[in-house]
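Lab notebook, bench 4. The sequencing result for the construct came back, and we need a structural model before the next group meeting so we can plan mutations. Quick request posted to the team channel:

Model the 3D structure of this chain.
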Amino acid sequence: MHDTALLLKERTSRIRAAIRLQEHDKVPVVGNLGFWPVKYQNKYTMQEAFYDIDIMGESYEYALQRWNQWDALTTSVTSRAPLLDAMGSTRYIIPGREISPDSDYQHPDQSFMEAGEYDELIKDPVRFQANVILPRVCKRIAKDDLYETIKAIAKVIVFSRELQEKSRRYWSGWAERYAVSPLMCSVFLVPVDAIIDHYRGFNQGLIDIKLRPEKLIEASEALMDNLLNSAVAGIPQGLDYPVLYNPQHVSPFISPKDYEKVYWPFYKRMVDVFTERGHTVWTVFEGAQDQHLEKLQELPPGKCVAHFEKTDLENAKRYLGGRICIAGGMPTSILAKGSPQDVEEQVAKVMKLFADEPGFIMCADGGLNAAKPENIDAWFKAMDKYGQLGGKLELLPPVEIKQDESMAGIKQKLITPWDAVRDDFGDIKGDEQIIKQYWEQLEVEALGLVNIIMQA
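Done. Here's the predicted structure in token form:
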């Protein structure tokens, strides 16, 4: 086996062993580089990188030539600005457009839905997104200008295909040259996060949790099938790695009582569905979530990763050690403002805490953003010094995938099922099943693109 191919297998096996709480040789290190390589290369503006994936690819190549010790990267290498412009999206503030070309893009808090519209969302979530939310978010999606709408969607299709193909080529090259691979194969949101992120906005959403929790619960229930389908579309049953990635934005800001009422039941159900299909769930618990640690003990052991930002890791280990793989340990503030000595001391402290725990993965508590290059060097050097576990690494075989069971365990929710359009076809002279088969096949295959458009 080629050295790089063997190294890649060792790295993926190491992460999978840590997640399963099994013995292995050393603590894995996972990086979230984001747009940091662009800043490190110091050749292009953030605007250029956000518009051109080839610039992102060049910047990553430049950074990986120096730092390729990562066992995996959480990064989604994407340059989405042309897609957002095509739709006329107002959801993000884009560098070079509304702000300085050297600034990071921003996701401001906006509300695109009124409190009185919950019943409409509950009745038909997909149509509500398409007919109500999308025209409010995207200036080029308009019911009274079909040509402009068709043109915008055509641009999205063309750009999305090109972006996905280029992204695949870049990742393939990095795996071959540096044995670096993506940690995740899909991203999903808990319903409350989806509602607050995409429709109600953060401030209004937190008010809803207090004033109208029952409506929030009904809406969450209505969204579940679509969120489950979107998360595993095209991902075969039994694929335990790469992981399903779940960032949580709202949970640190709600009480345990509210969490158990409107948030936890849906998160737990999603985790159960995914892990029963053989997948691994990696959740980023943003902010400080010590108040929810006791509840997290109910997650399925050896099948989840709890990646903490500000949660106290001693508390996390006390509640979850030996049950759930824990990730985190490196504050981005130290990487950005500290010294190499500070970095080494942080690594030594965290490695001492988890010295007896195979279920730990070292990560930063967020994107690297303003990390000093010398601190990245110190981080890897310290991990070599303190991160050895002394166990034996077993090279895990790839999972055998049965493609015909790719959606097993998931209730497929078609946007427009055949029964809803059957009468439009009138008196069918031939085999109705042929027409139905391809209608529903395209309904399923289009779901990913529909969700890209809905989230613009």
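The chain has a mean pLDDT of 92.
Will bring this to the meeting.
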